[in-house]
Design brief:
This protein has 281 residues and is mostly helical. It has one domain. It contains 14 helices and no strands. Helix 1 runs antiparallel to helix 11 and helix 5 packs parallel to helix 7. The longest helix has 28 residues. 53% of the residues are buried. Belongs to the EamA transporter family.
């Protein structure tokens, strides 16, 4: 993985954690996700005239990815309703790299070497530690954990689908524009159907924040898709999950969630895992 690709994925990690924090901050999750999803659709539609049309081989992946992304949004909304940001976000993100490694080996024929495989496992252990710290003396909220894990399954699925699709598209920017345009209409349409005449009154107080979240979301995923055309899927997926460190910082500063020494140790495992994954360059 080149320094430029590494920098792009790390920037994507920061922007991704930021838009997720925005989605968590908006109390009514459907309102927040309708704004973010709908804003992403508008950005995608605005980009279409200036991007190349994806090649025919990319369209099955595009359609499948749009469906998986809708499921991802629904499950992420549920995760944020049920759990704290500092735990729901890391569980969802931390469960994905190992799944991506398995799926990439099966479908993209990208079998990791010993360093990369060890790095993915160590990173997952660190992310799990970040997620589960603070549960001592309390029973885990299995509904929240289950929703976050299911979110991680969708993350792994769309990571592999889009990794294959963007390579077949001939244009990473054209692929992301069409993906945003295709997936972005469903949640806003459901929101409008549910709230009808009262929709604007619910959207207006959060419009600016939600649209900022949409721009960050599109930027984050565009960077990842570009990176997937230049490096293997599993290391990118794992490196992208360094967003959990940003998420933990956001949780501590803006949501007043404790970080603590155990979480710092778990974060250290994550950094070690990233170093192992990048060992082979």
């Amino acid at each position: 993985m080149t320094p430029l690709v590494t920098a792009a994925v790390l920037l994507a990690a920061v922007t991704h954690a930021s838009w997720n924090a925005i989605a968590h901050r908006i109390t009514d999750k459907l309102t927040g996700f309708a704004l973010i999803s709908g804003g992403g659709m508008l950005i995608g539609l605005a980009l279409l005239p200036f991007t190349a049309f994806p090649a025919a081989g990319a369209w099955p992946y595009l359609l499948a990815s749009a469906a998986v992304h809708i499921a991802y949004y629904v499950l992420l909304m549920r995760s944020f309703r049920l759990g704290d940001f500092g735990q729901a976000y890391p569980i969802a993100r931390g469960s994905a790299p190992l799944l991506v490694t398995v799926l990439a080996a099966l479908f993209a024929h990208e079998v990791p070497d010993g360093w990369a495989a060890g790095g993915v496992l160590v990173s997952c252990a660190g992310l799990t530690g970040v997620a589960l710290w603070g549960l001592r003396g309390r029973r885990p909220d299995w509904a929240a954990i289950g929703a976050a894990l299911a979110t991680g399954v969708t993350i792994a699925a769309y990571t592999v689908v889009d990794g294959l699709g963007v390579r077949a598209s001939g244009s990473s920017l054209g692929y992301i524009a069409w993906l945003m345009a295709l997936q972005g209409a469903v949640l806003p349409a459901y929101f409008l159907h549910r709230h009808r005449a009262g929709s604007w009154a619910l959207l207006r107080p959060h419009a600016r924040l939600g649209l900022l979240g949409a721009a960050l979301s599109v930027a984050a995923y565009a960077l990842v898709l570009w990176a997937q055309t230049r490096a293997e899927l599993a290391p990118i997926a794992a490196l992208r999950e360094s967003s959990i460190l940003v998420g933990a910082a956001i949780g501590a500063v803006f949501f007043k969630e404790r970080f603590g020494a155990p979480r710092i140790a778990a974060a250290g495992l994550l950094v070690l895992g990233i170093g192992l994954m990048l060992h082979t360059g």
